[in-house]
Sequence to fold (309 residues):
Amino acid sequence: MSKIPVIIDCDPGVDDALALMLAHQINTLDVRAITTVSGNVPADITFRNGRNLVSFIGWEVPVYPGAQKPLMRQVHTASEVHGADGMGGIVLPESNAPKETEAAWDVIYRIAKECKGELQLIAVGPMTNIAIALAKYSDLPQLIRRIVIMGGAAIGGNVTPAAEFNIYVDPEAADMMFASGIPIHMCGLDVTMKAYMTKPELEEMAAIGTKECKLFRDVVQHALKLFETWGMDTVALHDPAAVLYTADDSIFRGEEAGVRVETKGKRTLGKTVTDLYSDKQFDEHHAVVVTDVDREAFLQRVFDLMKKY
Ligand code: RIB
Ligand code: CA
Fold:
């Protein structure tokens, strides 16, 4: 089976870190670059975390810096979930890999040209870098095969009752992406909240014994303690779901839909408005809304991949 050329655009970020560890072990993904963006924590920290994480797991993939802030709004982080350092308080050794300076949006375009229309993006942070690339390079939509995102929700939200974090942080960027005509596969909260791990399953992961499997358990502990105050004792593997979906969507279920983003609402700002459950349909259906996953099969894949370290 030929490999899928991808760029992972992320905001590490605890679950981004898990997603990167898993992506490294998926043989069918040819990860050409990792690009980082302001999101869970400020951009300089997501860039540093991306660099340190890939060095920690011995992955020689280039990491490039991206947008310092959303297109039109102030920086909005989730440091209460991910820790001020974005890694749940876990300190990794500083990477001594060369520090890339090429901007994320230029990298996306350069590699899209190199891949001659076959490149797929996996976007698991706010979509600011993608929007800038779309604004700067008018032919980019013809060069991107698909964008798989962790973001949005047909129903619900985790920043407000209407909006999921990655969309809420930069709704204008997200709407530019959905309006671009590029096929978007949306792994939103509808499916990622079903892709969860329990505390015993996290301990089972750590018991595998490698430094990577221990990091998998350790890096989510800060978030887990916060979730427990909310009455939850599981961790949703939001970003890993988008990565595993990209590689093989056979254990997921999704439906074609039209999706646009609310950029003006007082109570609905950042909502991914889908026509999935609506009589009134959008004119264009460029999206697939992923709504379900076989959790047991998902978890088996997560363990199988982590056991490769
Ligand atoms: O809503 C969850 C998403 O927002 C995840 O990608 C998490 O890392 C944050 O970026
Ligand atoms: Ca993320």
Notes: Residues 206 and 214 are 4 Å apart (CA to CA). The chain is about 35% helix and 20% strand. The chain has a mean pLDDT of 98.
